[in-house]
Task: inverse folding
């Protein structure tokens, strides 16, 4: 049985004027899982996170952490969470180590030096921990922020757009230590609008758009999709034959139109063994095929397929 660390049920935030900027959001997180909250700017990721950490009031719905309801047991819930939502503030003139000590003093339970060393090691800040924070790069400050957030051994770490401003190396390192934390049983919720990043970092992603969850995807199952049945195919036909091609595609039940890239280019979703069947149809319809290129069913395509109005419209038309 897998433990549920976070459960968000019908979480809603309605703002003045009646607009629901977070609208009936549901998802769960298991122990040791890295879950991505993925969506374009304005999707409602930060608002969702702020409600979970109790920074802003929710309009309705519920949040429970380790089985405890946030409304009934706020204090206990807060001690189970470590979060960086806004940029963490540090004392610039003090060392990273002193900052952590200071933070530990403010927390209820005393932090041992051993625990501080442990978290510093986890985020790989050993070499710089005695330096003053004002000398830190953005990536180092962020690590210090994570170190601070996990100092009290929370079950759940929440990071809003943690890769913002990090270079590729910084992003890779963040990924590595989040995985290390996951191995130790700490679950992490990260938000981002970058798909490939989420794909590399997370076990699962919750895709949000305009306040709503539009899909929850298992990264591993997405990867399996590439190898097994459905794959994305880019079809390229002779210019001017787009319309007749669209008709052929519509006729083929097992071929799904995802997006019409150009007049004569289509992004399709289909089974591998449907490729020659489709090709035969084109030949019989006297359509010149210039290319059938199979592509990865990446999260990115899935995301596009789900969020682009064009994609949705075309799918509807194709049905
Ligand atoms: N207090 C508020 N009143 C009205 N609208 C708000 C309020 N707070 C946020 N919004 C709007 O709600 C939407 C969601 O905002 P939110 O910051 O949660 O999105 P986000 O997914 O975090 O976006 P980003 O990727 O830009 O960080 C935005 O359109 C924002 O302008
Ligand atoms: Mg945000």
Result:
């Amino acid at each position: 049985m897998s433990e549920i660390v976070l459960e968000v049920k019908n979480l809603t935030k309605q703002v003045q004027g009646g607009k629901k900027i977070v609208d009936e959001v549901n998802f769960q997180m298991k122990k040791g899982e890295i879950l991505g909250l993925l969506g374009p700017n304005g999707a409602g990721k930060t608002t969702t996170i702020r409600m979970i950490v109790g920074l802003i009031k929710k309009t309705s719905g519920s949040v429970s952490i380790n089985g405890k309801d946030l409304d009934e047991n706020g204090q206990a819930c807060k001690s189970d969470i470590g979060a960086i939502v806004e940029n963490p503030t540090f004392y610039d003139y003090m060392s990273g180590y002193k900052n952590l000590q200071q933070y530990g003093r403010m927390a209820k339970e005393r932090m041992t030096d051993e625990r501080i060393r442990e978290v510093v090691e986890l985020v790989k800040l050993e070499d710089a921990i005695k330096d003053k924070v004002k000398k830190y790069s953005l990536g180092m400050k962020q690590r210090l922020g994570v170190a601070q957030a996990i100092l009290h051994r929370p079950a759940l770490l929440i990071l809003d757009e943690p890769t913002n401003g990090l270079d590729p190396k910084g992003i890779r390192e963040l990924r590595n230590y989040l995985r290390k934390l996951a191995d130790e049983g700490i679950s992490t919720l990260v938000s981002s609008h970058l798909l490939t990043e989420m794909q590399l970092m997370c076990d699962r992603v919750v895709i949000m758009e305009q306040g709503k969850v539009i899909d929850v995807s298992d990264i591993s199952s997405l990867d399996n999709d590439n190898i097994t049945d459905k794959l994305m195919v880019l079809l390229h036909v002779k210019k001017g034959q787009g319309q007749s091609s669209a008709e052929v595609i519509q006729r083929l039940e097992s071929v799904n139109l995802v997006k019409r890239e150009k007049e004569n280019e289509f992004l399709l979703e289909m089974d591998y063994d449907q490729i020659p069947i489709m090709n035969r149809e084109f030949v019989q319809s006297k359509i010149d095929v210039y290319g059938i290129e199979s592509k990865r069913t990446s999260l990115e395509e899935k995301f596009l397929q789900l969020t682009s109005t064009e994609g949705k419209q075309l799918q509807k038309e194709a049905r």
Summary: Residues 168-183 form the longest helix (16 residues). The first strand starts at residue 4 and ends at 14. Residues 15, 21, 39, 41-47, 193 surround adenosine-5'-triphosphate (ligand 1) (CB under 6 Å).
